[in-house]
Amino acid sequence: KIMISAILLAAGQSERMNGENKLTKEIQGIPLIKHSVKNILSSSVNELIIVVGYQKEIIEKLIDKHEKIKFVFNKDFESGMASSIKAGLNHLSNNTEAFFICLGDMPMVNTDIYNQLIKSRNQKNIIIPTYKGQQGNPVLFDNLMKEKVLNISGDIGAKKILELNKDKILNLEINDQSITKGFNTQCDFSSL
Fold first, then answer.
1. Which of 45, 114, 58, 53 is nearest to 86 (CA)?
2. For the chain, which ranges sit under pLDDT 70?
């Protein structure tokens, strides 16, 4: 059957949070990372690879065991997002036909959004959710893009891939601001 995987990036150091790990900070009484995990697990995603690094024991403890979840430790997490994306890609199931790259700090991206992106996956190699024309996350890549994504470096994330492959992208308009709303600073949390 078709395998859709999600790589959830949860290795970063929350540098703009004044010493607090944003992924463990509670929103409505639940740690941020648990919101992200729950939304992915309720979607049609078959496999969830959570890439941990900074404070990995704390993050792993917060997340309830689940048959779809696999933890991957990125020992180079300090070098930036590309290393975490690669660590996740290297552990994708062999049957994966498409994979999301999801940011751990986007807890409000709901299950519907994942499912809408999955439904559109045959139209292009890369599906990007957009809100009022602004590109957001998570981005869905088909497996043909895997090698290209593995070639990125540093902290550029997958942006470079998107720039180089404009013709392969479908921008899917989603009427939901959550796809552009990361939680990076104390202010972002207080605006809830």
1. 53
2. 153-158, 191-192
